[in-house]
Prior knowledge:
44% of the residues lie in helices and 16% in strands. It has a 7-stranded parallel sheet with strand order 3-2-1-4-5-6-7, with helices on both faces. A 6-stranded parallel sheet has the order 10-9-8-11-12-13, sandwiched between helices. It contains 16 helices and 13 strands.
Amino acid sequence: MTDLRVLVVMPLGEQLGGGEMMFRQLMQHGRGQGIEWIAVFTKDGPMVAETRALGVETHLVEAGRIRELGRRWRATRAIARLARERQASLVFGWMVSAQLLAGPAAWLADIPAAWYQVGLPTPDWLDRVATFCRARGIVVLSRDVAAAQARVRPARPLTLVPPGASLERFEAVRGESPAALRARFGLPARGPLVGIVGRLQRWKGMHTAIAAMPRVRETHPDAHLVIVGGAHDTEPRYGDELRAQARALALDGAVTFAGFQADVPRWMQAMDVVVHASDREPFGIVVVEAMALGKPVVAGDAGGPTEIVTDGVDGLLAPFGDAPALARAIGRFLDDPAFAARCGAAAHRRAQDYSAERYAARLVEAVRDLALGEDP
């Protein structure tokens, strides 16, 4: 069977979130399955060299910012020219911003297009323009995203492919001592350790986790919160707001701001309860990662996490922004270690459904079907 050539357009050159992690997983595990991937980055960064080192044909076509129309048009023409020269069967935009280049490039090259909606459509003008661009179909990562994308016109065929997590990274540290890791990271040796991992953005809900801590500490006065994640360019002052909030709630010694950490698996292994407090997270890879460690998880009661977690079985759910509800869920785990252990064991089993290998195989199948299909 001859491999199909798929030119995948990636708008970022460094990992800032889950979408970039998923791209890496595809490049690592999605080769040799009937598709020859050709990666086109429109912004330079470490991922360019990393992808090339995997043996993937990799190109850099700098596209600049969306408002740089002349530069964007030149990049679009360059992508179209490359797609024709390499006889690509499909141009695949990775994320909504990539589709603004991939769709027009596919039209210029007279080649089918499709794209991956890794976010939750608002829909804002970006979602509307991307959806208007040429596309044989759109891949989505949760039922919640599919429902939101279906409301954007024109309607496009949708294919659901849930993301995966690099479970082996987390399995590798399951046997490590949380106490030893606390000492290594300078975290309190005693008391329950509650943790939240993610970029410092308001929709990620770190402020709700902080607001829940006074209630948690009413019954567990030595409970401590650790926030693992760096600042985000769009909300550079959110971290300062969180620190001010902690001071105002007299939590100065009860909250650790760890900043960005590359060794997330070990930081999560040090935690007793992992909180994911986002507002309608499109999927929730961090939830799967915590479950892979067998940790009791409290996740948001909306969006992708509700498709991963069964409330009361392999985790608990709490509404976004509801600090009392979040405190009750954390307290339920801390008050009942046997229940927490049962949820953690069930969570570990559930996480196996979301391996990076299974994700890559599913996405390859979806992209191959799009490449071999017909335009609607």
